[in-house]
Design goal:
GO terms for molecular function: hydrolase activity. By secondary structure, this protein is α/β, with parallel strands linked by helices. The protein is built from 20 helices and 29 strands. The structure holds 2-acetamido-2-deoxy-beta-D-glucopyranose (9 copies).
């Protein structure tokens, strides 16, 4: 049976209206890519976001083990090494400031419905979504009263000397209202950046207006002070001697200005240092930054890309051949290696009482790598990398979203002049964010551990998530690509039991959702619990297809449950029906069949609940139809109803389908 998400259903009714009015600047022209994907795509000249390059999956590793056990303690008290408590919003997005009008919509009343649908999917699972808006463009951005044509952002080309040719960004306060409207619908919370290109002429308007519009309802997370300051010298925007102590001084100037600005009520939400790895984090901590500015700092952050495609993009560095480095993304060592330089810092941050955030990351800088960043291999990689960061006591990880000219976007709107006949392209790593949202759920209390499973190899990592002392979910990955099925593995899970001196605690049944694709090279046929966003230009931001959740009967006498993980693929295992329901899944009464299919009209929301739920105003309430089929008639001309529906559905966190009373 087809799942209708009610919010998605309503929003999509509006989508033609919305799509018709999107304005995009400096769009990369691109060739039609309805052509089928093939390896012979080296001559593709269109936009990177739709590049059809398909790589060859690495061979099946020799001696791959397909059977192993996982033993869990029934209590977190005896599980050494659990992370700090994590939120379902752990994995969020970093959106380049210049593309907000493409991603969010042209203004506060014309929002991009597919974007709202995508965020709604995450909010349903995690309760909220964290988004950083910034990037290189934040440094020179200027808030202006109005722009020609009534637009809310515009770029001035060629006005900065930065080698990345970053344009100066002009924007109006409408950007903040747009963000606030999005937040009211899907509970997004925002990091912004204070322009830092010139500390003798600070432009604090982003903090003044941003606070005024976003802070009240709790939508503002903080302001970055500087973006990648360890690259300033290389980019030619500071003297070649620019060092951590110079950054310390510049940070102090901003902190003092914020303290002295009566229009910035919150003084302690600044984020530093957002370095990329050219400077070690320790070299910044050792300036005394945290101690000196403890009353200004809200979070510590870094930004990092494990490799780059800058030679192809800008002729900088050395060329990278995607096929040669594909395998580097396809094992558990990748995430561990990327994070290793930060372990001392996550511990230092914890001791300092500050969250430590990966503020901008993705598979490769300068746009990502064709055939890697946009394929299922990156889905598994980003899932493992994200969970590894959570296990390593980061408090968030933002996957970067660029424009049409990058390969790694979690989501890409169609070029403006094609929005009438093309939909959005959902990138392979968006699936990773859904799985992370479900794995942690909305409690804010999820602790994760890397189980070091199957130490025979690095291709089958596994994580357990504990909540309130008990194991609730497992994430199992299989990086191997083997269409024969011979590399699917089966793990035997035990919770408690005499082997570890505990009583048996393995449940009678577990639920399993699978994240699968035919190979790690796959770009369009990626499914999460049987549902997909489809391929290039195919999505309105909703998952399509019927949901398929497996129920597995455990053997309580032997205290074991067996879960098979396909090659390639990942499994999210729910160890109780509560753990399943909490992650945005319906609280189904029983799980007696092997597949759970959501049915229509199983849940219902009282308008009085709507009137008091988060992020919405009772005054904007308008009744809809009682029938799913003709609901559109009452909604077509009313965005305010959409906001009511969005706020209500998602704040209750229980709905898969509903009807109006
Ligand atoms: C879309 O706009 C680009 C850039 O102006 C142009 O090159 C391309 O031909 C247009 N495509 C269509 C289908 O109109
Ligand atoms: C791609 O480019 C190569 C080298 O320039 C050329 O030999 C080949 O014919 C081109 N392929 C297609 C399909 O145009
Ligand atoms: C928002 O954009 C739409 C479409 O371009 C336009 O009709 C409307 O006037 C704009 N609203 C504001 C407040 O600028
Ligand atoms: C969205 O923003 C506009 C402009 O600020 C405002 O008038 C409108 O009420 C908002 N809409 C919703 C649904 O919150
Ligand atoms: C900083 O950016 C602003 C706005 O883009 C620009 O006017 C100014 O010249 C820049 N200052 C420096 C020192 O680069
Ligand atoms: C960890 O970071 C602190 C603060 O910078 C530093 O003093 C200490 O030496 C670092 N420890 C290691 C092992 O790098
Ligand atoms: C695993 O990944 C690491 C780090 O990316 C890479 O160096 C290594 O070559 C990979 N190993 C295999 C067997 O592919
Ligand atoms: C994460 O923090 C917890 C709590 O302080 C600690 O026990 C654990 O060892 C840390 N994990 C890592 C990988 O540093
Ligand atoms: C999609 O992939 C699944 C395996 O993940 C496979 O069973 C199915 O046949 C594929 N569908 C298409 C249309 O290729």
């Amino acid at each position: 049976m087809r799942l209708f998400h009610p919010l998605a259903f309503f929003l999509v009714i509006l989508s033609s209206l919305v799509n018709a009015s999107v304005t995009v600047y400096h769009q990369v022209p691109f060739a039609d890519s309805t052509a089928t994907t093939s390896a012979a795509s080296a001559n593709y000249t269109g936009a990177a976001a739709y590049d059809p390059t398909v790589l060859t999956p690495p061979p099946v590793p020799a001696g791959f083990t397909t059977q192993f056990g996982i033993q869990l303690s029934s209590s977190s008290a005896t599980m050494q090494g659990l992370s700090i408590p994590q939120k379902g919003s752990f994995m969020g997005f970093s959106i380049e400031f210049t593309v907000v009008n493409q991603i969010f919509g042209v203004n506060a009343t014309y929002l991009q419905v597919p974007f709202l649908n995508l965020m709604a999917l995450l909010r349903e699972r995690a309760g909220e979504v964290h988004i950083r808006v910034g990037g290189n463009t934040q440094e020179t951005a200027v808030l202006v009263d109005s722009l020609p044509g009534g637009v809310m952002v515009a770029k001035e080309r060629g006005t900065t000397t930065d080698v990345t040719a970053t344009p100066t960004l002009l924007y109006t306060a409408e950007v903040f209202y747009t963000m606030a409207n999005i937040s009211a619908l899907v509970n997004t919370k925002w990091f912004l950046g204070i322009p830092f290109n010139d500390t003798s002429n600070l432009r604090l308007a982003i903090a003044e207006v941003g606070e005024a519009v976003l802070s009240g309802p709790g939508y503002l997370l903080g302001f970055q002070v500087g973006n990648e300051p360890d690259l300033y010298a290389a980019h030619g925007v500071r003297p070649s001697t620019y060092s951590p102590s110079d950054y310390f001084g510049d940070f102090g100037i901003v902190a003092a200005a914020v303290n002295n600005d009566a229009n910035i009520p919150v003084k302690n939400n600044l984020v530093a240092p957002s370095i990329t790895g050219q400077w070690t984090p320790e070299s910044v901590w050792d300036t005394g930054l945290i101690g000196s500015y403890s009353s200004s700092l809200g979070a510590l952050a870094v930004e990092h890309y494990p490799t780059d495609n800058c030679f192809a993009e800008y002729g900088i560095g050395s060329p990278v051949v995607p096929q040669d480095v594909f395998q580097n993304f396809l094992n558990h060592t990748s995430g561990i290696n990327i994070i290793a330089p930060y372990l001392n810092s996550t511990s230092y941050a914890q001791a300092s009482g500050l969250p430590f955030i990966m503020m901008e990351t993705n598979s490769a800088s300068c746009g990502g790598l064709p055939g890697i960043s946009d394929a299922f291999g990156a889905t598994l990689w980003a899932l493992d990398y994200g969970l590894q960061m959570a296990y390593s006591n980061f408090s968030g990880a933002m996957m970067h979203v660029g424009g049409q000219d990058v390969y790694y976007n979690p989501f890409t709107p169609p070029p403006t002049n094609q929005s009438a006949y093309h939909q959005w392209t959902i990138g392979s790593i968006f699936y990773s964010t859904i799985v992370v949202a479900e794995a942690f759920g909305p409690s804010g209390n999820a602790q994760i551990i890397d189980l070091q499973a199957n130490t025979d190899n690095m291709f089958t990592p596994a994580y357990a998530i504990y909540e309130n002392g008990a194991p609730v979910r497992l994430v199992l990955l299989n990086y191997v690509s083997d269409p024969s099925g011979a590399s699917d593995y089966t793990t035997t899970i035990s919770i408690g039991g005499s082997a570890i001196g505990q009583s048996n605690a393995t449940p009678a049944q577990i639920q399993v959702k699978y994240l699968v694709a035919p190979s790690v090279s796959e770009k369009s046929n990626i499914t999460w619990a049987g549902q997909t966003f489809g391929g290039t230009f195919e999505s309105d931001g909703r998952l399509t297809g019927s949901e398929n959740v497996q129920t597995i009967n455990c053997d309580q006498s032997s205290n074991t449950c067996q879960v098979t993980v396909p090659a390639p693929g990942a499994a999210l295992v729910f160890l109780s029906s509560n753990a399943y329901a909490e992650s945005g899944n319906p609280s189904t009464q029983t799980f007696s069949t092997t597949a759970v299919t959501k049915t229509a009209n199983t849940a219902r929301v009282d308008p009085s609940v709507l009137a008091t739920s988060n992020g919405m105003s009772g005054a904007t309430w308008e009744p809809g139809s009682t029938s799913k089929g003709d609901i559109g008639a009452g909604l077509r001309n009313s965005l305010s109803v959409v906001s009511v529906v969005g706020a209500a559905v998602l704040s209750t966190g229980v709905l898969c389908t509903w009807f109006w009373s």
